[in-house]
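Worked example 2:
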Amino acid sequence: MVAARRVSGQYGPTVLLSLLSEEDDTILLKVFLPRRYADAFEDEDIDDINQGRRRYKLIYLGMSGPAYLLSLIL
């Protein structure tokens, strides 16, 4: 299961995605999305993810210098 929440980090607001264990909801993995995604996610989108109404796929496309290239697909 995936959980999402908006957080304010060292570099400003962003979205934190957590991968949870299906057995006991312990956090297996946390991913802070790049800051540019903070503007792409509305509060309604975060609620939809947390309620299981919407699923996204985060695709790793490689690197450009020190930055990761990611694509978010509905």
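DSSP finds two helices and five strands in the chain. Strands lie at 2-9, 12-20, 27-32, 57-64, 67-73.
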